[in-house]
Write a structure and sequence with these properties.
The protein is an all-alpha fold and 95 residues long. It has 2 helices and no strands.
């Protein structure tokens, strides 16, 4: 191999390495962007789950309170009526 051919080969390899480095830098930038995007999506998802959990807990608490109120009202009605006696009498008549 002559000196000029060797120099040309070295220059070709040098340009190839430079292009490879540029491509690698661009790829790393895209990978970083993708990870940033994933981080943002995860943060949004975590916020949504947190909000859903808070809303669910609040709703279940409200439902529990409403059930307690209904039980209290039914208990009051039971005290002022003879429902259980009337039911038993009705069942005797049906038989």
């Amino acid at each position: 191999m002559e000196g000029q051919e060797f120099t040309n080969l070295l220059e070709f390899i040098r340009k190839g390495v430079i292009n490879l480095n540029k491509t690698q830098v661009e790829a790393y930038k895209k990978i970083d962007d993708n990870f940033d995007s994933i981080d943002k999506r995860l943060a949004t998802l975590e916020e949504s789950i947190s909000k859903l959990t808070e809303d669910s807990e609040s709703s279940f608490t409200t439902v529990g309170k409403k059930i307690d109120e209904l039980k209290y009202e039914v208990h009051k009605i039971q005290k002022v009526s003879n429902y259980s006696e009337e039911y038993e009498n009705l069942m005797k008549i049906v038989k």
